[in-house]
Design brief:
Layout: E1 3-9, H1 15-33, E2 42-48, E3 54-55, E4 58-59, H2 62-77, H3 82-94, H4 97-103, E5 104-112, E6 120-123, H5 125-138, E7 144-153, E8 156-167, E9 170-186, E10 189-200
Parallel strand pairs: 1-2, 5-10
Antiparallel strand pairs: 3-4, 5-6, 7-8, 8-9, 9-10
Length: 201
Amino acid sequence: MPIIELTLVEGFADDDQKSDVITRLANVVVDVFGEITKPNIFSLIREVKPGSWSIGGVVADAEMVAGGKAISNEQIAHRLDEARVVAAYAALASGDRAEIDTYWDADMTWLVPGEAPVSGLKQGLDNFLSFMGEVGALADNSFVMERSATLVLGDTSVDLTHNTATRAGDTSRKLDIDVVHVMRWRDGKIVEGRGAIFGSG
């Protein structure tokens, strides 16, 4: 019977975080030893009070623990995962500049592939948003982006989408493309993006 024992500082993790870390550790055990171990994994979280342990001879008091927790929360808030990528697109779609600024860096760059009038390097968030507005106008706001997958590795995200639209004033002209967006992130914001387009329109 595998036994997982995790020691945390009291007050550092909430119940959801404790559940999450224990579940992930149990999944590692299953990955290594097989599904047969899953029903037999025993997990224990032990919490020690601030002031009852030390690092390098310095006793860790409640103030140090609170400071560490604040840093942890800030890092979690900026963690790059699929949910953050989805939230960045939702912010863009909302048109709310304050929300957009949460995920898109003011000095970002975006490379639009191809040789169309809207193609090329967009430098700065304002230019990127202007490009997005131009695309919306060309499509009479018929543009639809359906995300099929999102991958995250380090400070880079890759998402696959299927985009459709019709041309403003001529609905017989249709956009029907598959797109790969590669985005580099820093401190929770997109600083660089580029796309690859497959299809017609």
